[in-house]
Amino acid sequence: MPYTLLTIPDWVKKMPKRAQEIWVNAFNAAVKQYDDEETAFKIAIAAVKNKY
Length: 52
Description:
Blueprint: H1 10-13, H2 17-34, H3 37-51
Helix pairs in contact: 2-3
């Protein structure tokens, strides 16, 4: 399920706005590529840690 800034999980909403944007973009790209939400969550978290 793709996310937007309005539909992200509550724990992501606690991040700074730029980190939220990175998370959404990484999650959506990963879920599209791998078709697996668990993998997408891991990739999105790693993207935030790497870029923010």
